Amino acid sequence: MRKIVLLYAWLLLTGVYAQENLRVMFYNSENLFDCRHDSLKNDRDFLPEGKYHWSHTRYRNKLNNIAKVITAVGEWQIPALVGLCEVENDSVLIDLTQHSPLKNLSYRYVMTHSADVRGIDVALLFQRDQFRLLGYNVYHVPLRYPTRDILHVTGQVINHDTLDIFVCHFPSRLGGEDQSNGHRIAAAKVLREKADSVISVRIHPSVVIMGDFNDYPDNESLFNTLGAKTPTDVSSTYANLMYPMLDDREHGSHKFQSDWGVLDQIIVNRALLQSSRISVKESKAQIFRAPFLLEEDKTNGGERPLRTFLGFRYQGGFSDHLPVWMDLVVQ
């Protein structure tokens, strides 16, 4: 017994502590719809009689594919936090967490219920043994047309520190980048206000922002409005972990014509690159480029994401986006 006490005292004096990795990922699931019509939403394309002939068999295959991606990103470690966008409703998340290959992994979820005309929302799956839910908020983006809300989830990690997660799906580039730019700036203003508020009240603020931003790291909404700069720019409050991948046109999370880009990003407050309590492992995030998620791009060359549909032709694939992920080290 005396040896155990002495060992514990030595660990305290030498600053040696146990560490735990917390894997965090984000994935645009590309139209995770069920087969039932919601009279308040424009979901008719994803009904059995709709343009995509969305059957129960295709829906179950889609759920299994999303589950496969989540477990594959986890490798030997199940992701503790999974941000998702383009999920239709609670039904698809119940099916995903309780009636797919994820059913034995004890995921719970929170999600938005936005006024988006198509009915797509954002959500966060979490492992209760690694993230204890304390509460969540939903923030509306004031535009002339309804868009996706921003989800803010607060929880406690294993060392009892608070972790704040923001999950986003910014307005699309429909109508052109310039014409729609103001919509994403409006979303970034709401996000900045809420994230800054969290940082101002937390003793040890730990903020993770993830999502499909429909903008690249150097676009105005993220670089200027949110103020998410490169990880090496110590003057900024937020660090965009995807910024180092900005100029890589051969690798990214999304492909437009022949160019890859990083529309899907993970952003953290700069304290997470410096803190010893919770920190980003190696100060970087990664794109998950498993071969099963890709197919030959016969039009533009190279590879592209293997989608569920190519036009209206069913392929049985995964998504038009690739997942992004990082590890948090919790002391």
The tally of structural domains comes to 1
The CATH superfamily appears as Endonuclease/exonuclease/phosphatase
Estimate the mean pLDDT confidence.
93
Q: Give the name of the CATH architecture.
A: 4-Layer Sandwich
**CATH topological fold name:** Deoxyribonuclease I, Chain A
**What Rg, in angstroms, do the CA atoms define?**
20 Å
Q: Which strand-content bin applies to the residues? A: 25-35%
Tell how many strands the DSSP assignment holds.
20
User: What best-fitting shape do the alpha-carbon axes yield?
Assistant: globular
Can you write the helix and strand succession as a string? Answer: HEHEHEEEEEHEHEEEEEEEEEEEE
Report the span from N to C terminus: 25 Å
Structure description:
This protein has 331 residues and is of the alpha+beta class. The chain has one domain: Endonuclease/exonuclease/phosphatase (Deoxyribonuclease I, Chain A). Helix content is 22%, strand content 30%. Helix 4 runs parallel beside helix 5. The radius of gyration is 20 Å and the shape is globular.
